[in-house]
Amino acid sequence: EAGVTQFPSHSVIEKGQTVTLRCDPISGHDNLYWYRRVMGKEIKFLLHFVKESKQDESGMPNNRFLAERTGGTYSTLKVQPAELEDSGVYFCASSLYSENTEAFFGQGTRLTVV
Amino acid sequence: GEDVEQSLFLSVREGDSSVINCTYTDSSSTYLYWYKQEPGAGLQLLTYIFSNMDMKQDQRLTVLLNKKDKHLSLRIADTQTGDSAIYFCAEVPPSGTYKYIFGTGTRLKVLA
């Protein structure tokens, strides 16, 4: 069974450009999460989808970030326009239920804004 | 404090034991986790402990929990070079969903 996959693995863009990150969760997992690790700091929660609905987006830093999960399958996270402080590693995770089960993480997308 | 705290680096010799420490924030957190991130890989769940336990052992891994001090530790016995990675502790506050609060990560380097 395929795990959580993220594309691309690494992206380098210029300040002001747009970048879209993609996450394919484990098939059948209704719960999908985005996290971010900036500058070697802690990994911070961004948002949580249940199927196609945003359950909790309290961690989204500002309105330059837009997450979608059309059809409740894969998810995208768009940053527009990107700023230098957006550089970091973006992790996606999925789980079958929202509690009492393991959440599986992808390998992350390393975003570098120059 | 508001942050889950970990020391940033730990270096041990192959065959020795490693102890990675973590101070978490919410004494009512029900689950506490240890994740491992190898270079170029995602976060791999190593082990977890329920808050009503004070110790859990799983092969070379021993997790100790001190709820009074909100202190969590991970001991790796007979540390191998393949254990070199970043180790994150994480807590899940009692809202129940997987809104993990992670620490900064401890980079473990195992010297041959």
Description:
The complex is a heterodimer of chains A (114) and B (112). Chain A has strands spanning 5-7, 10-13, 19-24, 31-37, 43-50, 53-56, 65-68, 75-79, 88-95, 104-105, 109-113. With 114 residues, chain A is mainly β. In chain A, the strands form 2 sheets. In chain A, strands 2, 4, 5, 6, 9, 10 and 11 form a 7-stranded mixed beta sheet that branches. A 4-stranded antiparallel beta sheet of chain A has the order 1-3-8-7, with no helix packed on it. In chain A, a hairpin with a 6-residue loop joins strand 7 (65-68) and strand 8 (75-79). Chain B has strands spanning 5-6, 9-13, 18-23, 31-37, 43-50, 55-58, 61-66, 71-76, 85-92, 101-102, 106-111. In chain B, 0% of the residues lie in helices and 54% in strands. Chain B contains no helices and 11 strands. Chains A and B meet through strand 4, strand 5, strand 9 and strand 10 of A and strand 5, strand 9 and strand 10 of B.
Largest interface: A-B, 29 and 23 residues
Number of helices of chain A: 0
**What's the N-to-C terminus distance of chain A?**
37 Å
Structural class of chain A: mainly beta
Radius of gyration of chain A: 13 Å
